[in-house]
Amino acid sequence: MAMTDDQKKQLRHNRVRLTDDLEVSEELIAVLMQDRILTAEAKDALDAEPVRKRKAQQLLDIIPRRGKNAFETFIRALCESKQDELAELLDEQLYRKHRTGTHSDSEEEEITSRGDVMNKILVKVEEESFIVQVTPMTTSQKQNPRPPNFAYSISQPCGRAMIIGIENRENSLGIRHDVQHLSSLFQQLNFETVIKLDLTSSELFSCVKEEAQNEAHSNCSAFVLCIINYGSRSDEIFDRDGKSIKIEYFLRLFDGRNCSSLTDKPKLYFIHTGDPDGFTRHLEQPMETDQCDMVDGTLPSHAPHQPDDLVVHEKGDVLQIVSTSDVWRNESKGSWFVRCLTSVIAVNARNQDLEEMIFMINSIIEHKESKGQRLQRLHKKTTLRKKFYLMSII
Q1: What is the DSSP letter of 228?
Q2: Residues whose CB falls within 8 Å of the CB of residue 68, separated by 6 or more in sequence, listed in order
Q3: DSSP 138-187
Q4: Which of 48, 208, 246, 337 has the fewest Cβ atoms nearer than 10 Å?
Q5: Can you name the residues that pair with 269 across neighbouring β-strands?
Q6: Is the pLDDT of residue 279 over 90?
């Protein structure tokens, strides 16, 4: 079915204004491709046009020929690319719908479905016989790739996952269960998984440095580092002998300056330090991007060094999640945070990007009161430039 005559008239009537002001941005193109309004060939043609107004004219020539849904999708794309004035100019009612979040019946069903998923995950996390089982992609999802400008490209295997669990004299409750759950998750997501347990500080530096220098990263799409260490603080961990080590020492080994094979690739850090008082302090003093250097601004002697004039995105493409409360852990099941994290990703990785899943994890955790009537929170720091799908065909 074709676009209505009234909709075509609106595009013709406002063509001069649209040509002058329309920005054919990556965000706008991503929405149009996601809903199949733009083909890959049409996108390539738009990308090849260097003049902004001509690019806008090309797109305005395409939209009326792309069916009955093309006009509304174009309005939504304008809203999501922050071109609200143009969206309102074309259709005020559709603009209000997509700007204010008014939903159709099908969208309401989708929202209800998301609520059901969250409730099922809450039940699953509390089960005594907790097992991580990743839900596979459907045939339709496999046959409909996401545009490369919209999401990070993922190859097979996806990458490497290093999982570090350290018990010490004071804290050991459930750590090995957490490591097992994380390992099971990332193995099912086709990551090459490495597990390191109960190391001294020198052993930690040695194995992490060796991982950072692993040539396999050149052929991988992503890297994951998980650190489980109860009783430590939000910015440090303890080795098996109780010696404290700054977490940033390890993370710097994988940045663009020290691990060039991971430059422009997503690096995911999941850290559960289990500081009984840390989440309150961590929220009051959030770790900003410019605070992540060490006190003296230097790397430890164990870290590799490269010339100062090396031009790389040193801290780009990172998602760091820190959970700093250890009050919800169980010797036979592990921590509530890890069970929630692995359950949400296992169920939703086939159709949600990572940041969407983090929002869901935080929402679920907010409903779980800890001892002393305190609510656990996650701290998130990100420099990701695109959406990241752990299960993706691009």
Answers
A1: E
A2: 1, 2, 3, 4
A3: PHHHHTSPPPTTTB----SS-EEEEEEE---SS--TTHHHHHHHHHHHHH
A4: 48
A5: 225, 320
A6: no
CB neighbour list of residue 119: distance below 8 Å, 6 or more residues apart: none
For residue range 22-74, what is the model confidence (pLDDT) as tens digits? 999 888 998 898 888 998 889 989 989 989 999 999 999 999 999 888 999 99
Q: Can you give the length of the chain in residues?
A: 394
Looking at the DSSP bridge assignments, the partners of residue 319 are 268, 382
For helices 70-80 and 5-13, the axis angle rounded to 10 degrees is: 40
Question: CA distances (Å), 55 to each of 3, 30, 52, 188, 367, in order?
Answer: 21, 15, 5, 43, 48
**Cα(91)–Cα(392) distance, rounded to whole angstroms?**
35
Q: Residue 22: is it exposed, middle or buried by C-beta count within 10 angstroms (0-12/13-18/19+)?
A: buried
What Rg, from alpha-carbon coordinates, does the chain have?
24
DSSP alpha helices (H): ranges in the chain? 5-13, 15-21, 26-34, 40-48, 52-62, 70-80, 84-90, 92-100, 105-126, 139-142, 175-188, 201-212, 247-252, 278-284, 336-348, 354-366
CB–CB of 99/92 below 8 Å? no
SS (H, E, C) 332-379: CCEEHHHHHHHHHHHHHCCCCCHHHHHHHHHHHHHCCECCCCCECCEE
Residue 136 carries which DSSP code?
P
Best CA proximity match to 69, nearest among 35, 104, 108: 35
Neighbouring CB atoms inside 10 A of 381's CB total 17
Residue 195 near residue 179 (C-beta atoms within 8 A): yes
| Pairing state between β 267-272 and 222-228 | parallel
Instruction: Judge if the upstream peptide bond of residue 266 is cis by omega within 30 degrees of 0.
Output: no
Residue type, 165: G
Q: Which residues of 110-123 are buried (b: 16+ CB within 10 A; e: fewer)?
A: eeeeeeeebeebee
Q: How many CB atoms lie within 10 A of CB 32?
A: 26
How are beta strands 267-272 and 244-246 bridged, if at all? unpaired
